[in-house]
Design brief:
By secondary structure, this protein is α+β, with helices and mostly antiparallel strands. It folds into 3 domains: 136 residues, no CATH class; 81 residues, no CATH class; 309 residues, Rossmann fold (3-Layer(aba) Sandwich), CATH 3.40.50. The strands form 5 sheets. It has an 8-stranded mixed beta sheet with strand order 7-8-9-12-13-15-17-18, with helices on both faces. Strands 1-2-6 form a 3-stranded antiparallel beta sheet. The protein has a 3-stranded antiparallel beta sheet with strand order 3-4-5, with no helix packed on it. The longest helix has 31 residues. It is globular.
Length: 568
């Protein structure tokens, strides 16, 4: 809560407990809810919420008369963000104003600037997400958009994708090569850190299964004052993180749990037993993380070492911000422990940011090495930090890494050397990008009942007179061909052969695939094997990190968690 240029944090509980307001580390009791009616400066939470809703609706109605649509959308978004961003509490601003003398001294200009910066980033992310969704639907024919509601189409598509899943499982070799075993040991080593960065929700078991996740979401709806995923404070999350990773507080060099737009939660820890500096980046857990995921437009960036490569815009910006924040920390740790390697890991969103950050640091390190030998000069603000960072090795272990880079970058020599990715069964996230969604909608439109009838009539016509099969198909399916923009040839499963207008983004590096977590088998794959979204009832459950842990543990029996040997 902000008042008179000061800042105070409030916390409240329900019936019977007094209110406590935290000011400069001291806890001051205030009257409980039973005495709220006696104090004119305090109001119950429902009265405040009603007032906020009324104010927001008045703002939206006032905006509706604005002549400029872009300005209207921006003001509506700001009003909605203001409504969602408020937290209910028993103390009003007038009550907190009396405590301003004991609050932490912050200038009003600094508070206003920080708030405006957060709102600007949120609006930018929201506008990019809305624009992407509108473009994705606007470029689709109406026929394909209607197919989204066809249960017959979804059922047929599921059967076709399950057969494709079986074919892929039979075509890929098992990961039995020595290099594969070394990378699998690295995945086992990084797994506890990828789990630990989720903090208290992971420690409490809220993310172990679909049931626990659903229970946590329902608890959020029943008691909005407590969110099992977002309510734990930083100290609670840090304690849970240290417990899950097996580290002590002395090993913690840096931590950031106060997430906002394009600023993911992350932590830097030391592992003296192995000799590593570990940077763990958290996956999607808050609405800010979801907006970052939705900023899936392609961005070009020469600073990553691939001038012709494309990157996921939201995760590229998040990776650059993480680099700017952690480079001073990594620099101090590198000076104190020059023989320690750098390990970067994450799950889901954290895996995508970790993969791009690894490519960024690797590219900048190579540029710095070239500059020190007189071949060139470093570029960018990030390079100045990397110039002091000379770790002997950088490794990234990405769990369920989404499609964040173009095809040329995903299998480049630098990505194959530094990044190890793993996907589980039909997990949708490693297969997710704008192009794969576009192709899924096109494929779905080919599974509707109307398309099936057209296919049947086309088959009958071709069997009656094969020489006129192409003319018969053109007469029987003109609407479908014209609206979908298909090429003359159509795949047997109904997939369109036309080129999608969206860029292809893939997962990164040396890839493994767990076809079934309960089988104890892990296969060697490539990024191109995850270009197609596979529709299945387990496509979301397979994304849980617990599923990855079960599959890795069973598939690596006899292997010990560890990191590859350093070059001599």
């Amino acid at each position: 809560m902000e008042c008179c240029g000061k800042t105070s944090a409030t916390s409240s509980t329900w019936a019977g407990s007094p209110l406590r307001v935290r000011c400069s580390g001291a806890l001051t009791p205030l009257p409980g809810p039973s005495r709220v009616a006696q104090l004119p400066s305090l109001r119950p939470w429902w009265a405040q919420k009603v007032g906020w809703c009324k104010g927001t609706m008045q703002e939206i109605r006032r905006v509706g008369s604005t002549q400029h649509p872009s300005e209207s959308l921006g003001r509506i978004a700001r009003a909605g963000a203001a409504l969602l961003g408020r937290r209910r509490c028993w103390a009003s601003r007038h009550a907190c104003a009396a405590l301003s003398g004991r609050t932490t001294a912050l200038s009003l200009d600094a508070l206003v600037a920080a708030k405006n910066s957060r709102e600007e980033k949120m609006l930018t992310s929201l506008w990019a997400s809305i624009s992407l969704l509108v473009d994705l639907l606007r470029k689709r024919p109406i026929y394909e958009s209607v197919a989204l509601g066809s249960l017959v189409a979804w059922s047929r598509l599921r059967m076709a994708h399950f057969q494709a899943y079986l074919d892929l499982q039979q075509s890929l070799p098992q990961a039995l090569a020595p290099e594969d075993k070394v990378r699998l040991c690295g995945l086992l080593y990084a797994l506890p850190y990828a789990k630990a960065i989720y903090g208290e929700p992971m420690h409490r078991g809220h993310m172990d299964s679909v049931t626990t996740v659903t229970t946590g979401l329902l608890q959020r709806l029943r008691t909005p004052s407590y969110d099992p995923f977002l309510s734990p404070d930083a100290r609670t999350n840090v304690s849970a993180m240290l417990a899950l990773s097996g580290r002590s507080e002395a090993d913690l060099l840096h931590v950031h749990f106060n997430t906002s737009a394009l600023r993911p939660a992350h932590a830097v820890l030391l592992d003296h037993e192995v000799g590593a500096i570990v940077l763990a980046i958290r996956g999607t857990l808050s609405p800010h993380d979801a907006l970052r995921d939705a900023m899936a437009t392609e961005a070009m960036d020469e600073g990553v070492g691939h001038e012709d490569g494309g990157f996921h815009e939201g995760m590229l910006q998040a990776a650059k911000w993480v680099a700017d924040v952690v480079l001073p920390v990594l620099d101090r740790a590198n000076q104190e422990y020059p023989t320690y390697r750098l390990v970067i890991t994450g799950h889901s969103l954290g895996a995508g940011v970790a993969a791009i950050l690894t490519l960024l640091l690797d590219a900048q390190s190579r540029q710095v090495a070239a500059a020190s030998s007189g071949a060139g000069d470093g570029i960018g603000s990030v390079t100045q930090g990397v110039a002091r960072l000379s770790v002997p090795r950088i490794d990234c272990y990405a769990f369920a890494c989404p499609g964040v880079v173009s095809a040329a970058v995903s299998s480049s020599p630098h990505a194959l050397r530094c990044v190890t990715s793993v996907a589980c069964r039909m997990d949708i996230i490693p297969r997710l990008c704008c192009r794969s969604i576009d192709e899924l909608m096109t494929e779905l439109s080919g599974k509707t009942a109307a398309s099936s009838i057209a296919e049947a009539f086309g088959s009958v016509a071709s069997s009656v007179k094969a020489s006129f099969s192409s003319q018969a198909q053109a007469l029987l399916r003109p609407a479908i061909v014209a609206q979908r923009g298909l090429a003359p040839g159509l795949a047997a499963d109904g997939a369109a052969a036309r080129e999608s207008p969206w860029a292809r983004h893939r997962t990164v590096g040396h890839c493994f695939w767990i076809p079934d977590p309960d089988q104890g088998v892990i296969l060697r794959a490539e990024p191109k094997h995850f270009d197609r979204i596979m529709v299945n009832e387990s496509m979301m459950a397979d994304h849980l990190l617990s599923r990855y842990e079960i599959g890795l543990r069973l598939a690596t029996v006899g292997l010990t968690a560890g990191l590859p040997a350093l070059p001599s």
